[in-house]
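Researcher: I'd like a structural prediction for the single chain below. Treat it as a standalone chain; there are no partners to consider.
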Amino acid sequence: MNELAKKKIEILLKDLEDMQKLEKETGKQHFTLQLFAIRIKEIYKLLD
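Model: Treating it as a single chain, here is the predicted structure.
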């Protein structure tokens, strides 16, 4: 797998984990679907 894409996926997974913790603490959603879509598009372009 493209190393840069792999790194971006690791960052995305870490962000998701951090945001879940923050949501539990604050009761607010911080990681939006738009942000998720942007990150996935970046990864897709790297793999294409």
